Amino acid sequence: MASLDMHATVNGREVRKPAGSHMRLLDYLRDELNLTGTKEGCGAGECGSCSVFVDGVLMKSCLMPVAKAKGAVIETVEGLAARGELSVLQKAFHKTGASQCGYCIPGMVMAATAALRSNAYADREEIKERLGGNICRCTGYQKIFDAVELARDVGNGTLTARALEAVDEERQADSFIGSNVRRIDAPSKVSGALKYAGDMVVPGMLHMQVLRSPVPHARIVELDVSEAEAMPGVEGVITCRDVPGTDGFGVFTHDQPIMARDRVRYVGEAIAAVAAEDLLTAKRALARIKLRLEELPAVFDPEAALAPGAPVLHEGAPDNVVMRIPIRKGDVDKALAEADLVVEESYATQAIEHAYLEPEAGLAYLEADGTLTIQSPSQNITHHRHMLSKILSLPINKVRMIMSPVGGGFGGKEDMIYQGMLGLMVLKTRQPVRYIYTREESILSTAKRHPTRTRCRMGLTRDGRILATEMKLLADGGAYAMSTEGVMRKAAILAAGPYAIPNVRIDTLGVYTNNTPSGAFRSFGALQSEFVTESHLDICAEKLGLDPIEIRRINAMRDGAVTHTKQTLGSVSLLKVLEAVEKSSGWEPGPPGVRGPERADLGGPGARRPCTLGARFRKPGADDKQEVA
Amino acid sequence: MLNCDEYLTPGTLDEAFDLMERHAGGYRIVAGATDVLPWARQGRAGDVHYPALIDISRVAELEGFERRGDRLRLGANVTFSDFMNDPGLREALPIMPQVAVWFADDQIREQATLAGNIINASPAADGTPPMIALNGSVTLARRRGGKRRERRLELVDFVTGPAATRLEEGEILTAIECDLLAGYGTAFEKVGHRRSLVISTVCVACLVKLDREGRRFEDVRLALAGVGPVPARLDECESFLAGKPVAAESVREAARLPMGRVQSRTRREYRREVVFNFVERALVDALAALGVDLTPQEPVLQKVSHG
Predict the structure, then answer these.
(1) Domains of chain A, first to last
(2) Which of B107, B120, B298 to mutate: most A Cβ within 10 Å?
(3) Averaged confidence pLDDT in chain B
(4) Across the interface, which of B6, B33, B102 has its CB nearest the CB of A63?
(5) What is the CA radius of gyration of chain B?
């Protein structure tokens, strides 16, 4: 590895330490100086998790070759306040609850610092624009903007420093509910001190890289790792052949090997992994693995996957069905025949990436007593532990899972994905191993939200009562089962919505295709089916000349209702929720589509406006509309 | 991953030429590096290795700008933030802050140069359309036998396709020249995802001058990117409007003309709508900057939204 002479002043101290020639300023700060408060979210200048000051100017350190910063004065999140203290902005982020997963927060604090340094009186619009290069997935930004405004006002003396302190009155007598409770982990997040899995290092740690399938469906004809294994600096190479126990994981059906076994079933599926003393060697070794694939016919459409003669993905499922969940109640056909109005429509939803700011990462090592410990942002450590015990053939008390801080999950870190490879590599090399996904790898290979196609038929009376609903939902489960069974179950259970409907016929069906596997994603199937029912109700309301809120009120389940799957509900708050929504949104009553293009209830107080470009260039004394740029 | 054996930071153009000669055939010139680093990643170029990366961002001769009669000379190291923050540049090129604000975020603007944006020759480059509209040209310098030679190319001829230009081995783009215009209303429109992201779907730059009475179009400059292999001047709109009375109908009619230019492989119908709406809005906005309000009562295709 070529090395470059490097020196800089970092957080007020002179640093002289050579840098790897491949390093960006981001890598130098994190890997050489151990300043891991600066995060890598995308590596492509999109997210701003890596923002630092270079000679007083805010820059994205993933877009700066390290040598560009030679001789520069660099300031990172660790240098914003004296050691062990927080800057006014950091305190304000703590106070307003601006940090959730916390992964974007160091970059966000840096961008906010830049905003207030350039204009100590910046208004909310200017703050928004200045923070435009930094992405947050959790907060919706409002609390972040609140924090910057608070820090601005304290900085200007408009508010006293007391505004940054926790105020006792915020705490209601004996309940956290309804109280403004400060997060106990926020100080470590706003200061950059919190270590996510990719920030952790242990002595002798190896770096892992993974060879992935370039094609959606193929037989593995040859997989020869001998050349990679023989390379200097390479400590271990693993394939499915190294798995000592019963390979196979998944939430309900254990159909996924930790690395492809004989066949690959989607683009990005792991085939082999290399651990080496440094990242570059591991990457080079991947290129030396001999892989020969014989492509197989692939299927990408869930309907095509159900057709006779479609390529079969798993021997255990000759019809490509992962799970079918039917719900039957009453006599749907009779009710539809008697209905005044029958509405039938089709709906589709797409695959969605979770897009947490923290790409998948993990650090695994052996304890002195032989316990395999895996630290990763897993949202389901107990289940993962049980599966790994079986796969790695270790007694359960020799597998320890530690949940590292989750830099955003949204369900995407619930299905096990890479922990098996990490564990296996540690068992093979007997050394600590760390693996960090790139953003590209994360998007390419990890589970997405289930795309669905749904046909819905609903029969109603003239006055808006739903007599029957029939729904057929087809979901693309992708190449492996993962959470599909549970997602189908929840989609079915919640499909008809919180409405008292006497006749219900629901079928949800998840099928295998050669697409990226679908997995858990916030709401777990409810979004897809409820999107259908709610959209359908709006269409029915329009056809019946009813107000959309009114049609929901007519059909709402009430206290003591029995759900379509026979659960008795003690209390149902739907009517209260509808009333609150109607009131607080300033809802303009009436059927949809009769109000013309202009609604009186849009753009009112409380409605969010997007960021205004060039907000900082307002002419002195001019109003919001007069922007120079 | 972008890797090299040596990362070189010449302080003068001659030093840069020395290094280029020493590493002939094995170097790549880097300016802001905001495009080359994301390029050298999985899904694009992958891992890339150069014997030498020559970083010209510290070359003093490439700094700054200079008025030369009715033309402006921009050094290759002028960044997008300079267009926003330098009062002299803001006055000379009022369209460029509008471009810069859409180009990226504060942080990328600080590093990224207009010259780099042009050389990368993305079909969707934001910096190229305004420069084409301003009859931009590029100055390419080389050193042969110890003597420095320069040639000048029209920008429309310089960019030949996606990631392709007429820059030759041994040459450095040292400057961009463009018209210095007075009395024009300007506008820049862009459709893309969140604006700090890399690529625009369609962007259009517009400059409009009216006759002394403010009744007729005297000069119209329009350039479009994102719908074909190279950004292009919209000659058909320009000549259609020249001399015509300023009226909403003629603006709308002109905006229809370039729809046929859409050659993109994906979402053609969508881009055609965008082009029509954008050209119309760019003209309306440029006229608004001159105090002429032609805001259409109702956009023809409402489903195409801003940003």
Answers:
(1) 3-37+51-72 (3.10.20.30), 82-170+183-190 (1.10.150.120), 206-296+355-445 (3.90.1170.50), 322-350+448-552 (3.30.365.10)
(2) B107
(3) 91
(4) B33
(5) 20
